[in-house]
Amino acid sequence: MPRGSQSKTVSAHRIGSLLFCPACGTLLDLPRDDQDEIPCAQCGRLEPASSYENLPTKTYSSPHAFPSPLKSKRGLVQNTMDDGEAAKERDPVAQEKCQKCGHIGLSYKVMQLRSADEGSTVFYKCLNCGDQTSLNN
Ligand SMILES: [Zn+2]
Ligand SMILES: [Zn+2]
């Protein structure tokens, strides 16, 4: 029985939370739950698992850098686009006076009659009361 050659008083070298074999410098594995000693993979030295107990345990307080990725509410794009069809049917407005209600602002539409000889007819529609009149040019 060798005497004192393999002293267990020498504790493992500790770097951070890692233990290294004091005999050969090999990084020691973490002890399993049922392990009392960690054998050095290189030289077979047994390091007591208790050496790990006093290790400064790093608490990884993961900073919640991104609490909850704010879902951009840009998905709801306001549809301010003009309705092309409605705009097309929107008649121009003439600053004419409604004969019925006196409202100024009649939408008008110029209609070409059957033959060019008869000229065109302008149809007015009151924006206020809806009264429609037509004027023959
Ligand atoms: Zn070793
Ligand atoms: Zn009117």
Automatic annotation (TrEMBL):
| CDD domains tied to this protein | Zn-ribbon_RPA12
Q: Which domain of life is it from?
A: Eukaryota
Q: Where does Zn(2+) 1 bind?
A: 21, 24, 40, 43
Instruction: Name the principal localization, coarsely classed.
Output: nucleus
Q: Which residues bind Zn(2+) 2?
A: 98, 101, 126, 129
This entry carries the following GO cellular component terms, namely:
RNA polymerase I complex
Using the record's annotation, list all stretches that form the TFIIS-type domain: 94-134
InterPro entries given in the database record = Rpa12/Rpb9/Rpc10/TFS, Zn_ribbon_RPA12_C, Znf_TFIIS
Q: Where is this region: Disordered?
A: 54-75
Q: Name one GO biological process term.
A: termination of RNA polymerase I transcription
Which region is the signal sequence?
Answer: none
Q: Which UniProt keywords apply?
A: DNA-directed RNA polymerase, Metal-binding, Nucleus, Transcription, Zinc, Zinc-finger
- Annotated localization: Nucleus, Nucleolus
MF terms in GO? DNA-directed RNA polymerase activity; nucleic acid binding; zinc ion binding
Metal-binding keyword on record = yes
Zinc fingers (C4-type): give the ranges: 21-43
PROSITE patterns with a match to the protein in the record: ZF_TFIIS_2
Q: Function, please?
A: DNA-dependent RNA polymerase catalyzes the transcription of DNA into RNA using the four ribonucleoside triphosphates as substrates.
The entry assigns this protein to a family as follows: Belongs to the archaeal rpoM/eukaryotic RPA12/RPB9/RPC11 RNA polymerase family.
Q: Which PANTHER family match?
A: DNA-DIRECTED RNA POLYMERASE, DNA-DIRECTED RNA POLYMERASE I SUBUNIT RPA12
State what protein this is by name. DNA-directed RNA polymerase subunit
